[in-house]
Amino acid sequence: MTTHPSNAARLTKDIVGSEYFVLFLCLAVFLAFAPFTPGFASRGNVANVLVACLPLLVLATGQTLVLITAGIDLSVTAVIGLGSVVGSLVMGGDAGWLRGSPLATPMAVAAMLGTGALVGCLNGLCIAWLRMPAFMVTLTSMMFCSGLAVWLARQAVHAESIYNLPPAFLALGHPGGLGALLVALAVLVAHLLLTRTLVGRWFYAVGHNPRASLVSGVPVAGVIVGAYVLSGLFASMASILLTARLETGSPNHGKTLLLDVIGAAVIGGTSLFGGKGRVLWSVYGVLFLTLLGNGLNLVNVSDFLITIIKGGVILIAALLDVWRSRIVRGS
Amino acid sequence: MSARPRHWIQSLLDSAPAALFAVVLIVFGLWSDRFLTVANLTQILNQSAATAIVATGMTFVLLTAGVDLSVGAVMFVGAGLAGKMALAGQPLALCLCVMAGVGLLIGALNALLITRLKLVAFIATLATLYIGRGTGRWITQTRAINLPDAFLALGSARWLGVPLPLWIAGLVILSAHLVLSNTPFGRQIYALGNNPEAARKAGLRTHQLLAAVYVICGFCAGLGGILALAQLGAVSPKFGELYEFDAITAAVLGGTSLFGGRGRVFPGTVLGAVLLKSIFNGLVIVQADPYLYPLITSGIVFLAVLLDSARQWIRAGS
């Protein structure tokens, strides 16, 4: 090297190559919106954004685990709907199985988590043991679960919405309530699992090279099944949050989130080819998408323009990722 | 010694899509005597035409181990534009050209993103899906557009006793099939999908091939949009939504692999599209609970994917 990079160039490279790059982008979005939108930087709105992004955050965390193993889980939003209907049928409505009982809320939460874990387990078994492609397996389970959710609700209450959920359950959805706390804890645990444990290293190994992992004694099938079970569990946590917040059990909760989930993980820098990704990156991605959506909403941008901008942002994030890896490699 | 039964199982699994199709026809035929009539079978083919065309384009993309999630958005943007133009009194032919043109344009955009800017196909087409749906909603102002009767007449017109949509679908499928199986271009697509590195080293122009595949897929989506529009007669804000999954499912049902290099337009993908619509049509005829449709359809798709994986185990084992 005969030429010395100038300070400015080095600074650019430091920012672009930094792990916190997407966080810097969030800051940029925040600073860009704050002067033009009254109320954007208010404490109320910031709290609002943080609470609103929780369901997307858990979903993106689960998706990150799956993406790291070189898989994909398209069934998560259908799990939200199915979990919501199953939980509501257990605890509430006019036909609830345990309505009025003090056990209603814990049993419903257990049933919702169980639904997610079961769907995830079936997905994982098909992918790991039957060696079916993850995209098709989770696509069919998406079709099946969302169909089942509607059918169950229609059979039980002849409608798609189930009301009159017990107050103890609704309390889980309060901003800053127990639900939010537990979800934040779950995301933290997933982060620690990936960064601090042997199991976490297995996830990356399986995503990088499943054959080499198998030869070196990594329980590849177990890791893959585990990833999908966790993804299902995280999806049912999102289901609990959404059902409690909207005070209704419905197969339609979260239906529009699927592309946001994958978009958030990818904006954060998680690779679709496996072996690369972090929960923390996805947190940044979620924060970025949510801030952008919230800001655009507050400046009264129309709904279709928000969709177009989201598409553009995913594109730019992907381009930046290509550009970043070129810059970092070029150093 | 084990070679013979394995060979037998292999050929059985190879014809799994056709067998599944036969089972569906027989079951519904026994269930209702209105299913296996010439009128109803023509109806099924007519309903499959749009899906079959879009899935044909998707097959080209899947053969290169790519994916195109933007086909439904292409249909929506084209339909929205054509609807607005038709209401403004533009001639029908111009509207149809615009729909096909939108397909070519978005296909070219995908191709640019994937080959020049090196984006992953999944992400690039996910982004164009968002951008397309947003643009479509902007064009239609999120309102349904009822089209002039000329569009519907196009869907029900017949030539030599065969509905026009079938002629169009047949033409597209025939040319796609011939291109894939009988031209150097087709063989190069298979080569690229089987082993991109080897294809590049062998001197194939992989960038141009990839670009062509996405342009073809966009164009087919535009054509499929025309047929779907001619049958519906209206553009709703949900027009074309989730069509990408229908197209991928039809291709995979017909034996196309998501990992590239394996699959055929005819009979494969076409059979997949007709199979999907036959199930749907049959369920309507036997008056099944409409809320059960997705459960049954996903069950059959799952079975097809499972059989396809079984074929892979046998191949890997032998």
Indicate the CATH class of chain A: Mainly Alpha
Query: What would you say the CATH architecture of chain A is?
Result: Orthogonal Bundle
The CATH topology of chain B is ABC transporter involved in vitamin B12 uptake, BtuC
Strand order of the largest sheet of chain B: 1-4
Derived structural class of chain B: mainly alpha
Kindly estimate the percentage of residues of chain A that lie in beta strands according to DSSP.
under 5%
Molecular structure report:
The complex is a heterodimer of chains A (331) and B (318). Chain A is globular, with a radius of gyration of 21 Å. Chain A is an all-alpha fold. Chain A has a single domain (17-330), classed as ABC transporter involved in vitamin B12 uptake, BtuC (Orthogonal Bundle), CATH 1.10.3470. Chain A is 73% helix and 0% strand. Chain A is built from 15 helices and no strands. With 318 residues, chain B is an all-alpha fold. Chain B has a single domain, classed as ABC transporter involved in vitamin B12 uptake, BtuC (Orthogonal Bundle). Helix content of chain B is 77%, strand content 3%. Chain B has helices at 3-14, 16-31, 38-63, 71-87, 92-116, 121-140, 149-156, 164-182, 184-194, 196-201, 206-232, 243-253, 265-285, 293-317, and strands at residues 145-146, 158-159, 162-163, 234-235. Chain B has a two-stranded antiparallel sheet. In chain B, strands 2-3 form a two-stranded antiparallel sheet. In chain B, a hairpin with a 2-residue loop joins strand 2 (158-159) and strand 3 (162-163). In chain B, helix 3 packs across helix 12 (243-253) and helix 4 (71-87) crosses helix 11 (206-232). In chain B, 48% of the residues are buried. The model of chain B has no long low-confidence stretch (mean pLDDT 89). The A-B interface holds A 126, 130-133, 135-137, 139-141, 143-144, 146-148, 150-151, 154, 259, 262-263, 266, 272-273, 302-312, 314-315, 318-319, 322 and B 113, 117-120, 122-124, 126-135, 137-138, 142, 245, 248-249, 252, 258-259, 289, 291-295, 297-299, 301-302, 305-306, 309, 312-313.
